[in-house]
Amino acid sequence: MRKDRLKYRNCGKIISIVILLSFLKPCPMSAQQQTEQSQTLNENEMRFWSDLEVELLIDEISEAALEAIEQAAGEAARAAVLSMLEREAAALRQAQMLRIEAEQMRKTGVRNAVITGLVCFVGGLVIGVLITR
Q1: Among candidates 78, 69, 76, 75, which has minimal Cα distance to 15?
Q2: Confidence tier at 49 by pLDDT (50, 70, 90)
Q3: CA 57, CA 26: separation in Å to the nearest integer?
Q4: Which one of 4, 45, 73, 86 is CB 3.0 to 4.6 Å from 41, fit for a cystine?
Q5: What spatial distance separates the first Cα and last Cα of the chain, rounded to whole Å?
Q6: CA 52/CA 59 separation, integer angstroms
Q7: Is 4 exposed, middle or buried (0-12, 13-18, 19+ CB in 10 A)?
Q8: Average pLDDT in the 44-52 region?
Q9: Domain residues of the chain, as ranges?
Q10: CA–CA separation, 29 vs 27, rounded Å?
């Protein structure tokens, strides 16, 4: 379970980094045409984003975030099912061990009862023979 938490934490970090890096990318993320013609920028100039580009970027980031959330939810469900199966398998193994132990104890009890009966029978015969003499 701890490994799964670390995996989800790393996945969250990667998603955060990708989202932050997508803000730094100067070209639009989708295959749609730009609303204005891009200019060549000098090092000191700054590019301004149009409202449409910002909305498209927000939509793309939201879509990527939803996909990541769905994937994380699927992995969490898978991990929960696996841990439940592991617990059930451990319970079945323990029940099997207890069943085997009970069977061995039953066999031992029957054997001890037979031995006790034989000892009592032989002892009774010996005592009976000695007393009747």
Answers
A1: 69
A2: confident
A3: 11
A4: 45
A5: 79
A6: 10
A7: middle
A8: 73
A9: 2-101
A10: 6
Contact 11, 70 (CB under 8 A): no
Beta strands in the chain, from DSSP E residues, in sequence order? none
Average pLDDT of the chain to the nearest whole number:
80
Predicted pLDDT at 14: 75
Asked if residue 64 lies in contact with residue 19, where contact means CB atoms within 8 angstroms, the answer is yes
**In the predicted structure, residue 23 carries a pLDDT above the cut 80:** no
The 10 Å CB-count burial string (b at 16+, else e) for 21-60 is eeeeeeebeeeeeeeeeeeeeeeeeeeeeeeebeebbeee
> Each residue of 93-122: b (16+ CB within 10 Å) or e?
eeeeeeeeeeeeeeeeeeeeeeeeeeeeee
The answer to pTM > 0.70 is no
